[in-house]
Amino acid sequence: MFLDRPAMKTQLGRVVILVEDFDKAFDFYEKNFECRKLHDSVSEAGKRYLHIAFPGDIDCGIWFLKPESEEGEHVIGKQTAGQPTLVLYTEEIEKIYSTLIKNRVTIIEKLQLTPQSKFFHCLDLYGNRLTVVELRVDPTSTIRG
To answer: Residue 8 belongs to a domain with what CATH number?
Structure first.
């Protein structure tokens, strides 16, 4: 019976984003979101593996891959058909927003305030939609978003 088993731990490891250029992709995320490299290697077959993480993340992050087909090349920046590729939670939304404005990143929905959060939408260098959110903390709640 399923209820007798201990709860299985499941956690997100990586989100895959197709890119044309590993270094340009990393530069964008490092400059705008303070990302760092978790793993960067080249296999014997010449295939590069680049994993990056956001500040505060130890294991979870983005895995940049180059498409291996013409079909894959056509979906760079369109993997989610205009829907958010990533939703990033932060405690410093104004700092990130200012950095993106300074770096001339395309903002497609300006910073907005709701009773539950502040958020905005922008595009990465390939056109992937990113949603950045700062949740309002309810001191009586133990649940995040």
So the answer is: 3.10.180.10
Integer Cα distance of 133 and 88 in angstroms: 6
Summarize pLDDT for 59-72 with one digit per residue, the tens: 889 999 999 999 99
- Residue 6, domain member (yes or no): yes
Domain count within the chain: 1
Reported pTM:
0.86
Containing structural domain, residue 127: 2-135
- Long-range CB pairs of 90-99, under 8 A, 24+ apart, other chains included: 90/132, 90/133, 90/134, 91/134, 92/134, 93/118, 93/119, 93/120, 93/132, 93/133, 93/134, 96/32, 96/33, 96/132, 97/132, 99/31, 99/32
What are the beta bridge partners of residue 89? 133
